Amino acid sequence: MGLWTRLKEICNRLGQKEETACLACGDCCRRFSWHLHASPRDIRRWRQAGRDDILAHVHELGMLWFDPDSGERLECCPFLVADGPDRAICGIHEVKPDICRAYPTLEHNRSCLKGTFLD
């Protein structure tokens, strides 16, 4: 392969759009959900929407996700819904916490745990 052909191939690959869709694997929810906090905006939104089901899982200090009966911290978000053997979706996607909505941040290089760049 000639130099110009190789250079053209590299330029074409660089110009291709990266995958930017969530894989819906649920890994981020399973790994990070045990140490998240609700924002004041989250609390206001959930109260206005009458989402007592969500508010019941919020600790009085704003930490997420706690068992409403025992008060114990849950290992994972209780609203993560299995959608297949390797898939899980957010059961509260429309009203999910701001911290979840912002993932992955620049701190995560805008990439999920599987390495998918999320725009």
UniProtKB/TrEMBL annotation:
InterPro entries: Puta_zinc/iron-chelating_dom (IPR005358). It comes from the Bacteria. Pfam families: CxxCxxCC. This is Putative zinc-or iron-chelating protein. It comes from Geothermobacter ehrlichii.
